[in-house]
Amino acid sequence: MYSRCIDLPKRNSFFLFGPRLTGKSTLLRRAFADEDVFFLDLIHPSVHQKYLAEPAALLREIEAAKGKYKRVVLDEIQRVPALLDAVHHLMESPSGRHLQFIMSGSSARKLKRSKANLLGGRAWSLELFPLTHEELGDDFVLEKALAFGTLPRIYAAQGTEAEEDLRAYVGTYLTEEIKAEALTRNLGAFIRFLPMAAAESGHTINASNIGREVGISYKTVQEYFQILEDTLLGFWLEPFAKTVRRRMAKQPKFYFFDTGVLRALKKTLKVPLERSSPEFGDLFENFFINEVRRLNSYRRLDQTLSFYRTEAGAEVDLVAQRPGKSWLAMEIKATERPSSSHCSGLLSFADIMPGAELFLVCRTDQPQLFRFGKRTVRALPWLDCLKMLSGPAQKSS
To answer: pTM above 0.85?
Structure first.
């Protein structure tokens, strides 16, 4: 059982979204284990059927409790979106005004598509991710995290068991998130699309090429990526823009939320992960960007993340705009031996953002400094770079 970095509110109502198996239910049961919690597990068939048939039953049950509860937890709220109307009513009624409402879910899409009552700003929105290196502590092993990801149950598994769990995860996603929720009419095309999307993870997306390979339209490719984003399987990293109107590149990059799930979708779980291989480098980049995103969310840092790429091909993997601080440009390399040849994209970025700090994020054991006239690039161990971006480690829940 790992402590989580996320700081859950003790008074304010909130939504907690996160992909399947990130540990939402476990976290909520542990954080709010008091007897004064009304907990609805909407995954349970009988509970699901009861409230699907009559969402208003929640109103009567809370009113009948006469102040017995301090919190109401609705786990997997997207399965019965109509319960949010009952929550809204309770928030404004004498019998529910004192309550903290906590709604968890693995898909924001169904709530949006069903035009569910999102409570008009009365509830915060938080997100839970796979385990970070901080949460894993002494159990963290980089090679294992790259090969199998850091979903709690899967990271705790060993070898073949982890591989089978990842294959099952992809199968469950297809049957429960996609088929059962009727998110697409053509499941076969979506199944063909997934490995193509995984192969393009971390690259600018060419929807036309993917469409030709899969046999679907450009619009359908866009819709499928939207499904991945809405079911929290991945996210877009937008191209850097010095101004809103001036983007260096036009197309965003798509990253999957977990390296293990990514490898399962690519069907490369059985392929040995060699440190010198291109896949190791791609997974290291994916992992680092996901770590930055997770810690940015948990610590409410409000950093804007993007990537830099010019028409001439100069590129920087990650750019962070920090409120009230200098910009950070980071080139991510899995190498243990950084060199000046890795710095060309960073120097290109410095041409348009002279005040930016330039970093080569890598697996070196000691920081190094590269000088280019008046400009400097610091090669940092990736852990040091994460600490610089997000501050000291913290565990809250």
So the answer is: yes
Q: Which amino acid is at 7?
A: D
- Residue 390 burial by CB count (10 A; 0-12/13-18/19+): exposed, middle or buried? buried
Residue 186: C-alpha distances to residues 179, 182, 211, 220 (Å):
9, 9, 14, 10
Q: Are 114 and 81 in contact (CB under 8 A)?
A: yes
Give the domain extent around 93. 14-127
CA distance 51 to 79: 10
DSSP per residue, 87-141: HHHHHTSTTTTT-EEEEEES-SHHHHHTT---GGGSSEEEE--SPPHHHHGGG--
102 and 207 housed in the same domain: no
Query: Which position has the token pair 């060993």?
Result: 158
Q: What is the pLDDT of residues 20-66, one digit of tens each?
A: 999 999 999 999 887 799 999 999 999 999 999 999 999 999 999 88
The three-state secondary structure class of 237 is strand
Residue whose structure tokens are 């779980």: 269
Q: Is residue 5 part of a domain?
A: no
The rounded distance, in Å, linking the Cα atoms of 277 and 275 is 6
Judge whether 320 and 260 are in contact, CB under 8 Å.
no
